[in-house]
Amino acid sequence: KKKQLFLVTCKKKKKKKKKNVGTETNEGVKSKEIEKTMASNEENGNVKLHEYEQDRVGKTSQTNPGELPLTELVRDFVRPSVLFNQLKQHGHDFYCGVPDSLLKDFCAYVTDNVPATQHIITPNEGNAVSVGVGYHLATGKIPIIYLQNSGLGNAINPLLSLSDRKVFQIPLLLMVGWRGEPGRKDEPQHMVQGKATTALLADMGIPFEILPDYEEGTVEAIEAAHLHFQQRSSPYCLLVRKRTFTPYKLQNTASNSYPLTREEALKLIISHTSPWDAFVATTGFTSRELYELREKEKT
Description:
Elements: H1 2-43, H2 49-63, H3 80-89, E1 95-97, H4 104-113, E2 119-121, H5 125-139, E3 144-148, H6 152-163, E4 173-177, H7 188-203, E5 208-210, H8 215-232, E6 236-240, H9 262-271, H10 285-298
Parallel strand pairs: 1-2, 1-3, 3-4, 4-6, 5-6
Helix pairs in contact: 1-2, 3-4, 3-8, 5-6, 9-10
């Protein structure tokens, strides 16, 4: 009787195991694959994590129309006005830097809501850091320095020679647009710099955090920065990923009576040169447009 009872129990366990395997094949395996991929992507800093999250939310709402979607997995975005006010509440009212496409919406809002004397666009990133250092020495306040990660090289000298905690201990809040982030498609000139960005910041001894793409998280990021300022009085960096901010259109646009586009200006320059002349241009729209226009001139 004991043997028979044992066999019956084993059979029941086997049946349950088979049933679980079947369920896992339909939903569990796929879910585990997604979670495994998400964990791997998160570990490698891959932003495609959110694509899997949105895909799972979409499929949940399709298979179970009556159920609410998992809203905690849906990607949010940061309104420039919200981040601006959060920074203002923490005493930040001075901005300087070099414009970046990933920061354009936030910078546009700053332009519309900050006096010209409190927002300075500098010729290069090193100038921005130096101006920020001077502002802190004059006021005791912490400036916000914004730039693209490709400009970190220009900022190294003043960051290490002036603001480092082993030199003059100048707190600066850096907002750095992360072009060429690993796992994201971008222009070729950004790929190497993008991969080296976090290592470069670490080598300079500048702690950094990726700015969250939801408004509650940005508050925590700012508070973490201020905790660092209190303890170490040195630069702190917020890395800004692509599509972090909601769109914002600049209202305070400058008008002039002589509108000249970049393309028209390049055409005029090319018309006064020969095919054998060498050009030096920025790695961006200007260089690509220059190349295309010169190619057309050949035909």
